[in-house]
Amino acid sequence: MSTNTSYNEKELLLRLEAGDKSAFDSLYYRFEPRVRLFLHPFAIGDTDMIDIVIQDVFVKLWLKRQELSGIATLEYYLQRMAKNRLLDILKLRNIRDRHKKNYAILQSTSTNNAKEELQLKEYLAIAREGMDKMPLRRRIIFSMNELDGFSIDEIATQMQISRDVVKKQLQKARAFLKEYISKHGDLPGAICLAILVLLEY
Asked: With a threshold of 0.70, does the pTM exceed it?
């Protein structure tokens, strides 16, 4: 529709109020480019967002057509509606982006925790396998000391062996397990000793 026809805003608003669709079309073709131009710098060239705002503004203009009699200048009224709608969309977009970021962080943390837990379980299983491969007496001495908290003297007394034998068996057990976990679990030696503390045999 041409925008060069004679324009009488007050008359068009009265016709619009009465439900005249051609009056709406006239107003739309006159003001759509102006509202688009007005929005452009605020929307940072986001034409999709501008299209949404324009659509919402003119839908609202039609729906509120019977409340427009007090408007002094339709262009300012449309600009105010467009600005408010744009701000609403930007707020919603910020909230949505914030939620997306928080969700991504939570997912990442949860995934990392699950991975670490699974890895620790694997290391503990390897440590238990290693203990099973030790000679029986060495395994008992190691278990009494590392898992049950018995001292070297207490173990020596209970098993009726010398302190030196207990100490030697413990040294061999630790060296064996450290090497076993490192070999089968692909872990640095220092961490292997920490894994042993977590064992519940």
From this structure: no
